[in-house]
Design a protein that fits this description.
- The chain is an alpha+beta fold and 169 residues long.
- The chain contains seven helices and six strands, in the order H-E-H-H-E-H-E-E-H-H-E-E-H.
- The strands form two sheets. Strands 1-2-4-3 form a four-stranded antiparallel beta sheet, with helices on both faces.
- The N and C termini lie far apart (59 Å).
């Protein structure tokens, strides 16, 4: 298999949904159009890993669902088979990409997209240059505030030509 391009990987819009609020999983399942009957799968599998996938062809969706179930997970899919919410143990997500690649040309890019999306989960972003500073995401929490010093502020907190008053406020 040749290395897929970023555009090929991006086709699937793979998004890990955990860790995150439980409501995000419920909302993702209902957005698929699968209905409330799909919610018991969240109770069984939603506390482990959850990944949203879009841009699927129906046959890719069937293979993805079959392989994830074999690994102890579950897939909630849209009626069209173009989107899926994947739920299961971390071990299943460790094996799923290689299983999809083994299926051959039709699902190997999907497997690579899942692998790429999950590979970055355990690492922090690289330091980011910001003016004279280097933002390091592994050292401390960074907070930014916006001082609105315009008199016509839509938020009502504008202080005219006195930025010091805006900072103090």
């Amino acid at each position: 298999m040749t290395t897929p391009s970023a555009a090929e990987l991006g086709r699937y819009n793979v998004r890990p949904l955990t860790p995150g609020p439980e409501s995000a999983l419920r909302d993702a399942a209902l957005a698929l159009g699968a209905g409330p009957g799909s919610l018991p799968a969240l109770a069984s599998h939603g506390r482990a890993e959850a990944v949203a996938v879009a841009g699927l062809a129906p046959d890719e969706c069937r293979v993805l669902t079959r392989e994830l179930r074999r690994l102890g997970g579950e897939a909630i899919t849209s009626p069209e088979g173009d989107r899926a919410l994947l739920l299961g143990p971390l071990r299943a997500f460790g094996e799923l990409p290689s299983r999809l690649v083994e299926w051959g040309q039709r699902t190997e890019v999907l497997g690579a997209a899942l692998q790429a999306a999950l590979a970055g989960r355990g690492s922090r972003p690289s330091p980011l240059p910001a003016g004279r500073h280097l933002l390091r995401f592994d050292q401390r929490t960074l907070v930014m505030g916006i001082v609105n010093a315009t008199p016509d502020s839509f938020s009502g907190d504008g202080t005219g030509d006195d930025p010091a008053a805006a900072v103090a406020r």
